[in-house]
Amino acid sequence: xxxxxxxxxxxxxxxxxxxxxxxxxxxxxxxxxxxxxxxxxxxxxxxxxxxxxxxxxxxxxxxxxxxxxxxxxxxxxxxxxxxxxxxxxxxxxxxxxxxxxxxxxxxxxxxxxxxxxxxxxxxxxxxxxxxxxxxxxxxxxxxxxxxxxxxxxxxxxxxxxxxxxxxxxxxxxxxxxxxxxxxxxxxxxxxxxxxxxxxxxxxxxxxxxxxxxxxxxxxxxxxxxxxxxxxxxxxxxxxxxxxxxxxxxxxxxxxxxxxxxxxxxxxxxxxxxxxxxxxxxxxxxxxxxxxxxxxxxxxxxxxxxxxxxxxxxxxxxxxxxxxxxxxxxxxxxxxxxxxxxxxxxxxxxxxxxxxxxxxxxxxxxxxxxxxxxxxxxxxxxxxxxxxxxxxxxxxxxxxxxxxxxxxxxxxxxxxxxxxxxxxxxxxxxxxxxxxxxxxxxxxxxxxxxxxxxxxxxxxxxxxxxxxxxxxxxxxxxxxxxxxxxxxxxxxxxxxxxxxxxxxxxxxxxxxxxxxxxxxxxxxxxxxxxxxxxxxxxxxxxxxxxxxxxxxxxxxxxxxxxxxxxxxxxxxxxxxxxxxxxxxxxxxxxxxxxxxxxxxxxxxxxxxxxxxxxx
Length: 614
Hints:
Nucleotidyltransferase, domain 5; six-stranded mixed sheet
């Protein structure tokens, strides 16, 4: 099994590539006296718990990466821990990095960007595409940590004491501080007796946040200053990373929501530090590599300029060591292991969300400028693309030539495998030219490996023609991703059946295509609210759906909806605009034409007319 370990001072958590988890006690930190020995004991103890917690047979550890507190301050101790783990786990690849690096990898799925950790202390870590790391703040409670839990609690207590001295306004924090700490006259002595002033003042932060939510002026001022510090730290880290993505982690991350500048793209954390350590155990070509100490039979991942034939090193091609006896599983076990694997897909998709949003923007731009959405794939990706393309006309009322799937091997490959077709670069160019490729089109190449020659040639040809391009891949840093304007890298890892990318990778690809086509169509005006108002009412079921859409979206009864649909020739959007704007079908069509086909715009255009008439 491959394992990632998050080793903190109070706890140690391990997670395998099969999703099995275990937890144990932590270690005081690598920089402390005896830190390496304590860390080794903690890691080996939690590894020993993994087979029991997962109800599986004990298996050998193939690779393990540890994100350890104190590793950055004590690099020699980090190297010593990596060697000690390699000796204790014969044949295993071992890696040690700092807990902050593991948290960064987990939060952004291994991508460059910035992570702002908000807890008792505060620190921002930026990693650019070249691996350069920049830390912002993290100086501790005496020199920094502005906006941290300790800082918020301290400033809240200062507001209480200043009011007592007549230097500040009355505040509800006075009662909260008394309830938490007792006699406020003795507060300095109480904090000193607690040992760690920062940890103790941080316990008051929830009181400050609660009072601010109730509009207490003193508390609101503290929180406003904290949020300003978050924005300053996060923006500085984003600038250092050279990419706009910023993830917030830590106990305060959900406490409040500041207004971020336009250059900061806030993203949800894809995973925790254990997930980051697991990714570092699986891959050796992430931007964070310079911060990782490795030992054992290290297998270096393929360079980013690797050949399209170099597939043996790909994560999607690997077999899971914990499933060496998969063929002996009964039905219940097989179902569980397959479902557990599929359950990891959402986290991989979440990590790719910023790139996916850019892909949606490109697709929307192509459709609204008279271009098309052209999918290109081979095998499973091509067949998934064909399904998505086929569903767009009935769902969104577009013509079949507006969303097109080009599959290596031709139309017959949509239902039956055509061996060798994916290696034919020339046919990709010919297929695009036969469709009349223009600079207004968006070409989306889908390939799990990121190396399929048919897809790679299609993207290169599309870019040469001036068309926008998107790559949807399941391995990092691939040639196909490098050939596209936007790379949606959904890192799904090894399959239950090694190399069978119709499983997790296929699931992720289908969801990506759902998001791209639906996001583009909604953005292009083929929806009103959550209703598919361009649905083609071509059978009884769809006519009933059209009636329901008009009825619900316009808030009218069924006879009114039916009359409007019949008057419009069962064109759902025209009927909806007619009802909402109080006009006939002909005028509704005119308003839609003037409004660029958007129902909401058409209704807004009708309002001045209604006022003038009345």
